[in-house]
Structures are given as C-alpha cells and as structure tokens.
Design goal:
alpha+beta; 3-stranded antiparallel sheet
Amino acid sequence: MDYKEILDKIISGELKEYRVSPKDAFQFQLALRSYGKRQSITGIAQRGGDIIYTLSDNKN
C-alpha cells in the first residue's frame, strides 16, 4: 500500500478521511512519522481498534 500517496491526498483534501485497521496501523504509523506534514494530520481511535485520520483543524 502506498501510504505516502494516501497522506498526500489527505493534505490536499482529495480524501476527507482515511480509516486504518489495527492490522495496518503499525505500517501506517511508520509512514506517517516520516511524512513531512505529519503535524497537519490527526488520528482518532475508534472502538474496535480502527483509527480515522483526517486533516487537522488547526492552521498554524
């Protein structure tokens, strides 16, 4: 899976949100940590272990 492309789409607004399952969470986190604009992306854990990533509301 090309997580950098997904992160780019979140930043550009092309994707409103991206849901990551627990089995993919570690690999997604590795990609997010090395992503240059990671502070612009927020992840919210859901019941059941999924995490929904969206563009952060704070525009600093």
